[in-house]
Design a protein that fits this description.
187 residues, seven-stranded mixed beta sheet, alpha/beta
């Protein structure tokens, strides 16, 4: 009886420490990226695909792909090649689980997209926040090939020439929109 109590106490302590470590890891990742993980609603992704042409020959990169739901939707609806970049451990493992259980071709890498080769993309999708947009815009202008489309959900890139805006709920000024850009040839 005493051995079961000790074993139970040790297991409870182990899982408490493991949980605390996971929370600390997630908080440190959030401090590092300064971007929380928020899902893009599927109905908005459908709207994007209705208005933004992604073909089976495209290669779509999702910068900060979370659980890879956007990539799954794009892969299933268009047949495009998809790749995600994620540095949040929890979101990365959820993405890998989604890919494995749903037998997707999508590739997700545990990598900082700011230090990755992005030249293979023909379309880049991101749902980031305003605080980091300037720095990312500067990076994308040098990291992407001319003609690459960028689709930003919710936040605009400063200093990038806007091609179009796709409103998720026209007439609702509080609703998020998709902002579509193209990388221009360097002069």
């Amino acid at each position: 009886m005493m051995n079961m109590f000790v074993l139970g106490t040790i297991m409870a302590l182990f899982f408490s420490i493991l949980g605390l470590c996971l929370v600390i890891w997630i908080l440190l990742t959030l401090l590092y990226t300064r971007v929380p993980w928020v899902k893009t609603p599927e109905k908005n992704i459908a709207l994007l695909l209705e208005n933004c042409i992604i073909t089976p020959s495209d290669t779509v990169y999702d910068l900060g792909c979370g659980d890879a739901a956007v990539l799954e939707y794009i892969e299933r609806k268009t047949g495009a090649s998809t790749k995600g970049f994620e540095i949040s451990p929890l979101a990365y493992f959820l993405a890998k689980g989604r890919i494995a259980t749903r037998r997707l071709k999508t590739e997700v890498v545990f990598e900082n997209f700011m230090k990755s080769d992005l030249t293979g993309a023909t379309v880049v999708f991101c749902f980031l926040i305003g605080d980091v947009m300037q720095k990312i815009a500067e990076h994308l202008q040098t990291a992407l090939r001319p003609g690459t489309k960028i689709v930003s959900y919710g936040y605009q890139f400063p200093d990038l020439q806007l091609d179009s805006v796709i409103k998720t709920r026209p007439g609702d000024s509080g609703a998020s929109s998709f902002y579509v850009y193209s990388i221009q040839a360097k002069r």
